[in-house]
Amino acid sequence: EFIEGKTLRSLLQERRLLGWPESLALLKDTAAALGHAHGKGVLHRDLKPANIMLAGSGAVKVLDFSVDPGSRGNLPYTAPEQQQGKLTAAIDLYALSVVFYEMLTGELPFKGPNFPAQKREALYAPASGLVAGLPNGLDGFFKVALAPEPRRRFATAEALAAAAEAAA
Question: Does 68 participate in catalysis according to the annotation?
């Protein structure tokens, strides 16, 4: 399908960060797409802003689902367990949470070079400390969404989107 529009990566390069309402809407639409894919047994494995397209119609499209079962994704966005080859829907939800953090703050939560250690220890700056005026519950949302262990994260795309909305 040809989609006229721009990627989230392009939008972030233009604007650096997005406001709360716009970021939440993009998160919810992307979560809905992932939830649909997960319901069909399909994982993305490489979700990042370059793979989220904002169509001219206003629709959000998720691009470039990985067909390679060995795909390790893009390090800043991959879940800790993905680097060990453990592939479940939790890896896509983790990546979406990293994208959400980036939309809201203009930066990645984990900057490297030692991504595994930073993620294992959850070493990232609270979003509220980077951008004034974000919802009070957002730091608690990210504490769950970026938890090192998948069992401590939101279980579904729907639960992730609902928790983000409730953070306001």
Answer: no
Whether the full predicted model's pTM is greater than 0.90, yes or no, is yes
Q: What is the pLDDT of residues 142-159, one digit of tens each?
A: 999 999 999 999 999 999
Host H or E run for residue 98: helix 89-105
Q: Give the contacts of 84 (CB within 8 A, at least 6 positions apart).
A: none
Strand partners, 60: 54
Q: Does residue 104 contact residue 77 with C-beta atoms inside 8 Å?
A: no
Is it the case that residue 79 has pLDDT exceeding 60?
Answer: yes
In one-letter notation, the amino acid at residue 99 is V
pLDDT of residue 73: 74
Determine how β-strand 52-55 pairs with β-strand 5-7.
Answer: antiparallel
Of 46, 64, 68, 139, the active-site residue reads 46
What's the per-residue H, E or C state across 105-117? Answer: HCCCCCCCCCHHH
Assess contact for 136 and 142: CB atoms under 8 A: no
